[in-house]
Amino acid sequence: MSANRRFRRVVRIGPVHVGTYNDGRGREKHTAACTAPRCGFSTDYDSRAAAELAARTHRCRVR
């Protein structure tokens, strides 16, 4: 099954986008994903604060 997520409250912190969505069970989840080429950083969190902290402290290894 594909992941068809509708993100809301999307903010950009540096190259990282943080967005909120509801998972398949109706729970609210938060994602932090880097948009830099060849980076590949993307994680899901239960709290918005954790996702924003990850976005603020993320450092791309690809240069």
UniProtKB/TrEMBL annotation:
Q: Which domain of life is it from?
A: Bacteria
Q: Name one Pfam family in it.
A: SpdB
Extract the InterPro entries matched here. SpdB
Q: What is this protein called?
A: Mobile element transfer
